[in-house]
Amino acid sequence: MDWQSNLGNLKTPLSCLFLTFLITFSQAQNGKEIVDKYLDTVSSGDIGKWHRIKTFYSTDVGYFSTEKFKQGFGIPNKDKISYKRVFQCWPYKKKEELYSDSLFQNLTSSFYYFKNKKVIFLGNMPPMEVIGDNSIFFDFPPTIVEKFIEGSTHIKYVGIDNIANSTSTFYKVDVKTKNGDYRSLFFDTQTFLLRAIYIPEENVYWIYSNYKVIDGYLIATVMEIMNDGVVFSRTIYKTIEFNKPIEDNIFKY
């Protein structure tokens, strides 16, 4: 067999390899483009604005079902609606107050978050101190997604998919973080807004909806957590304030 025949035999595998490269490159580009459109949309072209937030205050109505609670997700609330106030200062100070009434008069529990420590007050019980990394509690969805893609070795547009039992469909982008964790991101096909983050090792979806512009920030005002197709936690924000003065003694216990 002459060299021309050998070259001809190489064309098919080389062509396949080149085509595979183009498809992989295209998927990575499309996935990154979708993520970038989301970050651009919620930041008005300035992702840095999320890093310049100094304080955050909110009130919300929440629901947490202990029946659907899975061990390891945190401390369950009672099986009824609770009302919450959140005070947060950067870099690492956060307090959550849970009440049984919408007037915020009957305090039932308090949670203090710092960089490597969480302190929990439940009713008349002695405080519980939990040591561990709490940095995730100081991120907003745009900065969470930004951290996912920083140094990522894998950003792939998978296609159109739904979220668990939902009939709605979204752009799905799979990401392998620099820490080796896999995350699936779901984006609205019209607005490119983030609709869900899927954490496979816990089989959990963080679901975001009802976006509103508040103090110049486009933010989801409803967040749900789903496991095994069941929403066991729902938070509906009633008020949100960015960069308002918060007294430091709020975080003393």
Q: Could you please describe the fold and organization of this structure?
A:
- By secondary structure, the protein is α+β, with helices and mostly antiparallel strands.
- The chain has a single domain, classed as outer membrane lipoprotein receptor (LolB), chain A (Clam).
- Helix content is 21%, strand content 43%.
- It is built from three helices and 13 strands.
- Helix 1 packs antiparallel against helix 3.
- The longest helix has 41 residues, at 3-43.
- It is globular.
- Mean pLDDT is 84; it is low at 1-7, 14-28 and 69-78.
β-strand amount = 35-45%
Main β-sheet, spatial strand arrangement: 6-5-4-3-2-1-13-12-11-10-9-8-7
The whole-number mean of residue pLDDT values reads 84
Helical content band:
10-25%
* Low-confidence segments: 1-7, 14-28, 69-78
List keywords for this structure.
alpha+beta, outer membrane lipoprotein receptor (LolB), chain A, 3 helices
Which helices and strands occur, and which strands form pairs?
Layout: H1 3-43, H2 48-51, E1 55-64, E2 81-89, E3 93-99, E4 107-114, E5 117-122, E6 128-131, H3 141-149, E7 154-162, E8 169-176, E9 182-187, E10 194-199, E11 204-214, E12 217-227, E13 230-242
Helix pairs in contact: 1-3
Concise overview:
The protein has three helices and 13 strands; from the N terminus they run ααββββββαβββββββ.
